[in-house]
Amino acid sequence: MGLRRQSGIALVLVVWVVTLLLAISGSFLYSTRTDARAMRNASDLARIEAVARAAVVRALIDILKPQGQPGVWRRGVQQQAWSFDGHDVKVSVADESARIDLNAGNDALIQGLLRRAGLEEADAARVLDAILDWRDADGLRRPNGAEEPDYAAAGLPGRPANQLFQSVEELQLVLGMRAETYQRLANLITVYSRQPGVNPHFASREALLAIPSVSEEAVDEYLSQRDAALKENRPPPPFAAAGAFANYARMAAVTVRVDVTNPEGLTVSREAVAIPTPQAPRRPFAVLAWREVPRRTVAVAQSPASAGAASAR
Question: How far apart are CA 32 and CA 219, in angstroms?
Fold first, then answer.
């Protein structure tokens, strides 16, 4: 009887030991599989990043070629797509001169853009002065502006930078800038064009409507003319109604948008802001910013004029 009990206890111990070993081995296998998956994901992401950077370089080299030649990319007009090493690549290039510069833009142009974003005349004047106070080097308050005491009185922890805007996102810190207003402005402003005006050859409908004394009818007519010229591969016409607010300077900074999808379906989107550097022949361009873009569906490419008409609808 005692021998049978001892045999039963031994069997139970064996079962527990086997169970414990199985649990340990299962945990080890799970950990190994998780580590292997993490390494594979890291490898896939590194490969996608490399493809994205290569696509940016290819785009920058191509757009530096003389515009109008066969096969040369046209900025802001079409999206390029190709496959590389099993990855689907989509690239578009936007000229920063199509946007209004927070640092160099004409004051009346910036105020017009604020009105287009939904601000009343008085509110637009206040925000404009606050923008000017933010970017100037002194602590003197403009009549409708805001300096450090005004930010403190409003209960805001920050204060004016008293220097030029370093990024578009910085505008959100300016006193009087509401979130909904910023969202309407974000795609229409820049800190990279370094031009007082806006380039009608690339500008959106909303950016052109920020020009003082320009009517919607004049803008829509010009967009139709521009769209027709682009379809016929002709240079876009000038926008006479823009007057001194138009800037037709040669390409300054551009934003290259890249969407890369790997064979497993993982998509990453990156944007690079770059500027030509003809003074350095061995380095034809310099990258000013590189940023990740939240994943979203890639829109079908369309001409700027078509995009303006779509937004009008």
Answer: 62
